[in-house]
Specification:
By secondary structure, this protein is an alpha+beta fold. It folds into two domains: 2-82, no CATH class; 113-375, Cathepsin B, Chain A. Helix content is 30%, strand content 18%. It has eleven helices and 17 strands. It has helices at residues 15-20, 35-47, 55-82, 98-102, 122-126, 129-133, 165-181, 190-196, 209-219, 264-274, 287-290, and strands spanning 2-4, 27-29, 87-88, 119-120, 139-140, 145-146, 149-150, 221-222, 247-249, 254-258, 279-284, 292-294, 296-297, 309-321, 327-334, 348-352, 365-370. The strands form five sheets. Strands 4, 5, 10, 11, 13, 14, 15, 16 and 17 form a nine-stranded mixed beta sheet that branches. It has a two-stranded antiparallel ribbon with strand order 1-2. The termini are far apart.
């Protein structure tokens, strides 16, 4: 491995421009084969069907790609040296600038204050302490059936360019609770949450899990087949048409509970096992998550004070040994970036469990149950 400057050769682009451009930087490749990065870029364009409008845009995208290419190489090297199973690779975000990728994330920091209005899972779980102590070593709700019905859909949805991850995460919880207690399994409308559940802001700029849970408790939710997803719709206000769509979830039929941040690991596990509920969770995002391929994410490069937040649905847990023989406990999390264009886990990812990776256990983790208060 050698470090050298890769000079991009496009019309109107000089070496001096490259050095001054903040998007231009050194990349790590084999000095004897610098064409590898060009070949990788060509393969990327074919794989993701990229057609840029002119040479100037091609130049910009190539620079972004080089940055991703370099970052991925460094991340894989560090992970390998540490003995971790996590790997990183080129994906559909690899030609985006940092600003463009940021626009696909929530710029609204989850509010701890807002959680004061939500019910806590602790009282219910503590009354069932014996069951909590006997939790199985691993769970994966993708393969669980309740009353003969699967409770997690086999389609990993794609939020596209809209930062409504929070809506997708909450909807995954609602779908599972509905299938487990009412049925049959029905895909529910993230679009309704994105259009209607945001207090004074646009759903595609980000949101809070509390917004989605409180909306469903008070208004119910339509099916995604009738209130369909459009990644551009919630970029403008006044788009809510909930009254025009039949309720699948009826208001006041479901309860949502936040895990206690100080006992989050145990409570999230208990909600998965006892309630058969996925757990929607917010977390901060860094380069490792952006370029994730597979394995267990362990190292953190996120900023909990920054503007880059995302949400997913925890649907299981387990453990495995890393390459140094250490046991790594992990969460299995459902993402909303589609099944094929990010990662190699069919739209899911694994992240270290019990260490509050990028705030995934403490920022806000919410599960759901049927609103049968005789069990509360």
């Amino acid at each position: 491995m050698h470090i050298f400057l890769l000079v991009l050769v496009f019309s109107g682009f000089s070496c001096s421009n490259a050095i001054e451009d903040p998007e231009f930087f050194e990349i790590t490749v084999d000095r004897d084969h610098p064409e590898k990065v060009y070949e990788a870029f060509e393969q990327f364009k074919i794989r993701y069907q990229r057609k840029y409008k002119d040479a100037a845009e091609t130049q910009r995208r190539m620079q972004n790609f080089i940055k991703s290419y370099n970052t991925i190489g460094i991340l894989n090297l560090k992970s390998n040296e540490s003995g971790y199973t996590s790997t990183f690779g080129i994906n559909k975000f690899s030609d985006l600038s940092s600003k463009e990728f940021q626009q696909r994330l929530s710029n609204i920091a989850p509010s701890q204050k807002s959680r004061s209005t939500m019910k806590k899972a602790s009282p219910f779980l503590k009354r069932h302490k014996r069951q909590v102590d006997e939790l199985p070593d691993s769970v994966d709700l993708r393969y669980e059936k309740v009353n003969g019905r699967y409770i997690v859909g086999n389609i990993v949805k794609d939020q596209g360019s809209c930062a409504c991850c929070w809506g997708f995460a909450v909807t995954a919880v609602a779908e599972a609770v509905y299938a487990a207690n009412v049925g049959p399994f029905t895909y529910l409308s993230e679009q309704e949450l994105c259009d209607c559940a945001t207090p004074g802001s646009l759903g595609c700029t980000g949101g809070d899990l509390v917004w989605g849970t409180e909306y469903i408790m008070g208004r119910g939710l339509a099916a995604s087949s009738t209130y369909k997803w459009d990644e551009h719709r919630a970029n403008q206000s006044g788009m809510c048409v909930s009254e025009e769509n039949k309720r699948v979830l009826v208001e006041d039929k479901f309860d949502y509970y936040f895990a206690d941040r100080y006992n989050a690991e145990e409570e999230i596990m208990a909600m998965l096992v006892q309630w058969k509920s996925p757990v929607a969770a917010s977390f901060a995002v860094g380069n490792r998550f952006r370029s994730y391929s597979d394995g267990v994410l362990v190292e953190q490069d996120c900023d909990l004070k920054g503007p880059s937040f995302h949400a997913g649905a925890i649907i299981g847990y387990g453990s495995e040994r890393d390459y140094f023989g250490r046991i790594q406990k992990y969460w299995i999390v459902r993402n909303s970036w589609g099944p094929y264009d990010w990662g190699n886990e069919d739209g899911y990812f694994k992240v270290i469990r019990g260490r509050d990776w990028c705030g995934i256990e403490s920022i806000g983790a919410v599960g759901g149950r049927i609103a049968d208060h005789t069990h509360a």
